[in-house]
Amino acid sequence: MINLFQPAVGDEELAAVEAVFRDNWLGHGPRTKAFEAAFAEHLGVAPDRVVFLASGTAALFLIAESLGLAAGDEVVMPSMSFLAAANAVLAAGGRPVFCDVDPRTMNPGREDVEAALTPRTRAVLLLHYGGQPGQVAEIAALCRERGLTLIEDSACSIASTAGGRAAGTFGDLAMWSLDAAKILTTGDGGLLYVRDAEQAARLRRLAYHGLAQATGFGYAKVSHRWWELEVPEIGRRVIGNDLTAAIGAVQLRRLPEFMARRREVVALYDRELADVPGLRLPPPLPEGHVSSHYFYWVQMDAAIRDGVAADLLAAGVYTTFRYAPLHKVPAYGSDRVLPATDRAAGETLCLPLHHGLTDDDVRTVAGRVRAAVAERGRAAGAA
């Protein structure tokens, strides 16, 4: 089976884990701090603004809680997002309001976000679909004009930039997922960026029970009763640790290598699929934009999309569609009418894309896509 996603871990990551074992400290410690600092350098931000957490979802929940949402407060987000974003808003007492997207890029434009704003809107939560930054600068400007918090779900955009600026640094808060399917993985993990220094310190505390200070050996050097607790507000334990941070540090060093290969894979797909009748490839990036190439998506007549996916699965190629529209999920209670999102959801298929794919793998996938689209198209035409 040619997988949709696949991590690239090897001897370097194993050696980093071995070093942690030799030091006999697996918890939150110096390697966590070093990983945070290295990622902050990658983004071009101060190291105290980045927090390594147990998951990207944990980061979203911390962010949503930090908004202080009351009943009726709304957070606008594209319907084509991962469900963790909507779950976080609901769990914090708010209401997700879904906006439409461009049916080709799957990213919302400024006008899509603006159309969903109401007097109850407190924040905008923006996903960069497949790693493409989209209109992040324009939406950031809109949020500043309206006095709204901008949150960037950068799970897909670990290496994306717009105008030379890292995706995730346009808004007030951002998160990245480092789960096993992501470009940079720690198995499970997440990174949080907070623009405001005071808010960053607060969320760091909330990620570890809300403690104002550590209670272990390090604090014993500055307090004669280091076991006493100071808890200004209640938090939870969602911090990262040195074991996974060690893996992350290696993965971050290898990120340029990963991105170079992903660009090669995308270019090969573009060449191999350029002339397939009835198949639309991802639109070109705007000038000045760099994508992380997390997804490679193709679009076709909705009447054949599901059949093509089934044919590819039977032929040993795993595909999927991400992300299923959240405004269609009953649990979120949405009555929004989003025609572009609905159209894209019926026509789009994500093909295998990871830096472990060989050129032969890509040609195999492309050949099977070509055959499945042709066969299903003939069958649909004859019906």
Task: Report what the structure shows.
- This protein has 383 residues and is of the alpha/beta class.
- The chain has 2 domains: 11-251, 3-Layer(aba) Sandwich (Aspartate Aminotransferase, domain 2), CATH 3.40.640.10; 254-382, Aspartate Aminotransferase, domain 1, CATH 3.90.1150.10.
- Helix content is 41%, strand content 13%.
- The protein has 12 helices and 12 strands.
- It has a 7-stranded mixed sheet with strand order 1-9-8-5-4-2-3, with helices on both faces. It has a 3-stranded antiparallel sheet with strand order 7-6-10, with no helix packed on it. A two-stranded antiparallel ribbon has the order 11-12.
- Helix 3 (56-66) runs parallel beside helix 4 (83-91).
- It is globular and about 85 Å long.
- The protein starts with 10 loop residues before the first helix and ends with a helix.
- The relative contact order is 0.17.
- The mean pLDDT is 96.
Number of strands: 12
Uncertain regions: pLDDT < 50 for 5+ in a row? Answer: none
Along the chain, the helix and strand elements come as HHEHEHEHEHEEEEEHHHEEHHEH
Largest sheet: 7 strands, mixed
Q: State the share of residues found in helices, binned by percent.
A: 40-55%
Radius of gyration: 22 Å
Count up the domains.
2
> Can you name the CATH architecture of the largest domain?
3-Layer(aba) Sandwich
In DSSP terms (H or I, runs of 4 or more residues), the helix count works out at 12
Mean pLDDT: 96
Biggest sheet: strand arrangement: 1-9-8-5-4-2-3
Using the alpha-carbon principal axes, give the shape: globular
CATH domain topology of the largest domain? Aspartate Aminotransferase, domain 2
The end-to-end distance, rounded to whole angstroms, is: 31 Å
Percent strand: 5-15%
Class computed from helices, strands and strand pairing: alpha/beta
CATH superfamily of the largest domain: Type I PLP-dependent aspartate aminotransferase-like (Major domain)
**CATH C-level category of the largest domain:** Alpha Beta
